[in-house]
Design brief:
This protein has 9 helices and 24 strands. It is an alpha/beta fold and 457 residues long. A hairpin with a 7-residue loop joins strand 23 and strand 24. Helix 3 packs parallel to helix 9, helix 6 crosses helix 7 and helix 8 packs parallel to helix 9. The longest helix has 17 residues.
Length: 457
Amino acid sequence: MRVARASILLCGVLLAGTLPAVAPGTARAASSTAVVPCSRGLVALTFDDGPDSVLTPSFLTILRERRVPATFFVVGSRVRADPGVVRRASEQGFVVGNHTYGHESLPSLSSAGVKQTLLRTRRAIRDAGGKPAPIMRPPYGAVDGRVRALAADLGMATVMWTIDPRDWSGRSSAAIASSTLAGLRPGGTNIVVLHDGVGNSRNTLLALPRIIRGARERGYCFAALDARGRPAPPVPRSRISDASATERPGGTSMRAVVTLDRPTSRRTSVRVRTVQGTATAGEDYVHLDRRVYFPVGSRRQVVDVRVRDDLRDERAERLTLRLSHPRGMRIADARGVGTIHDNDPPPRLNVQDAEVVEPTATDTAEVAVGLRLARRSERWVSFTVTTRPGTAGEGDFVPLSRRITLAPGELGARVVVTVLADDVEEGVETFEVVVTEGRNVDTAGAVGVVTIHPPPK
């Protein structure tokens, strides 16, 4: 803490009695009980007397890797000596508060001196590229009404603590962790004062992972301090997954999942609604517009969108699943894609029979053969049409081989076959129009018969 022995004793006197009595074995029992994350409240970890060029970056790394928000109350002169650490802390989202410029006992300073040390520190944080929070912590916890009022004149809230594991006094990492965990109060304000810039800070660094793990096992979650110096509930970021379903007779559901990246200590919610795309609300699915709530500690909620069976052969259709109007959270990814896969078989293709009178010797005749789908399709349909001799041979008509494509929604087409005259006196003859090589269509049995009647005598 870089203070004289008398100052340390003063700090010890001021902090005496801040730790509640805990029965033996309580901490161990609490950690073995499964609890909902954040259900027991918030813990704000705060670090005083830094930055330290060697240790503070290690504190930042541990906190960031474990996704723990925290607050650093920095000494202005140390910020001037090592501005890069404060800049890094701010860039990584940690709160940077004011701990005076020279770690002075504020009640011993004049009013002008109190304001000067606070203003110099705020300026040092800004000059380092950091973002000074409007909060200050008095060194040694030494504060009175005058100091609080002077800080308030500068727009700063005075922040104390509720748990002091006395890490500055040379305690082991195990003792620091145990004292911190023993001081946690369910449902209460838990502000822990630790130090990243004193001689024993290495033991505090070693204790930090144990503190984080133990608090979470007991159902607490971590918070930074807000502008009033109070633990602010974590603000999770939400996203919605993509979803898909295949149509079924009687309908089915498409299941999307809304997730939060972290738990929080209060109920949160977000609006979920569907937006039609190639899939049409009312025909392909039931429109959804509702608010989804997350209880304390919850990170996952399932949303079902009802999918209808429309009895149409079609391509996969899509809609958008959209998040909006968050409460107690932010939206990281507002959109998911819902895909509806078709279950309907391709439509059957029917070939109509046709009749034609054989032309006279000098003429030709044309016969139109209709090709029709049994029902509409929303896909591109294609198939090959050929002629096949029967009692009418290839000298009786011009052979045909043609690829036909139907656009989505088209029901059919027709082909024209040219019938030839001959000098042979004969009766009724027939040949076939055959469909093969179908795509997105059922061509089984797709055969039509063309009948050629002899010319009148």
